[in-house]
Predict the structure of Glutathione S-transferase.
Amino acid sequence: MGERVVLLDLYASMFGMRARVALAEKGVEYEYREEDLPNKSQLLLEMNPVHKKIPVLIHNGKPVCESLIIVEYIDEVWKEKSPLLPSDPYERAQARFWADYIDKKVPDAGRRIWYTKGEEREAGKELIEILKQLESQLGDNPFFGGERFGFVDVALIPFSCWFHTYETCGDFSIEEQCPKLISWVKRCMERESVSKSLADPNKVYDYVLALKKRLGVD
Amino acid sequence: MGERVVLLDLYASMFGMRARVALAEKGVEYEYREEDLPNKSQLLLEMNPVHKKIPVLIHNGKPVCESLIIVEYIDEVWKEKSPLLPSDPYERAQARFWADYIDKKVPDAGRRIWYTKGEEREAGKELIEILKQLESQLGDNPFFGGERFGFVDVALIPFSCWFHTYETCGDFSIEEQCPKLISWVKRCMERESVSKSLADPNKVYDYVLALKKRLGVD
């Protein structure tokens, strides 16, 4: 088809990882371009003039921004392989609801753990409450998509490589409090689409330490 | 089909109005139930246990929450009449991007105009910048959906009945600074689906005055 797919991304970004996992699930080849956020590329500024944020998926020269919108776009364009959203409208709405819940809750609670001084424990407790809510939604299913790895799995799994950072900065154990969720993480990591797309948790932690220093919160 | 559709809503809610406009576009009959937010109904708490917020669309007993997800659900279920999202994946992604932009920017800037003391003018300027960005996206098209009233139109038009409140509290004129956007509002108001679904701007203002009193910010 002569497709040209470029992903403007940042190694440690959970939002970028969503796009990487979705592209890997679909078997789409693409060019990965690492951005340096303090020195954003001209291409990034041109392709996402509104938010100026990664990730941006550039498909045949045209940009798609915002990670969940990118994942849904990927699912619609390469629809034959590994459908991510269910076909039933009600199930689709439910999947979108939980992906939206993740977006509204997890990044903010996560950031408050490493970005603040003195608020780490409070933010850690909040994150655990959010993860418990998600764990209860998972129930006894292997994936949020039921028997199949799906949209909500793509939305949440990238945060798992930040768990080590959250736990270290907030001094708590996610596995102790959400054992089923950690089993789900391990199950997802058995997929090459996930294990090859996610950042190394130790590198995420190093990235956060460097970021704290840059932002003056260490 | 023996459909049973119930909308848990609040008269002045721009989020609720999105669902009302979408249902009206599709010609879906439904039962409207006004919620009293300080005394939420048992049904609301049961149907949206996670966020406990309106609007909730209950379709044959099953709840759908979060306004844009509701609009997309309505578009997928009643797909024959007045399609709201385009069929092309790239155009769909663009429509989702702008609806998401509205969600991320407009309610917050709007609330800061009436909810704060001393910050009204600053928030007003910010809202104007956001509306100008949207106006430039509209360009010379009659609707955000191009020739057709679509998803982004549904997402944004409910805020227009709050413009009077924003202008009065923030002491500025949207029409002066965004004349094309106001022409778009008038064009949308020619549709019965919009004019019958939107709240009366004076009633919105009265609602906000009462809310300010209740919240102790008057």
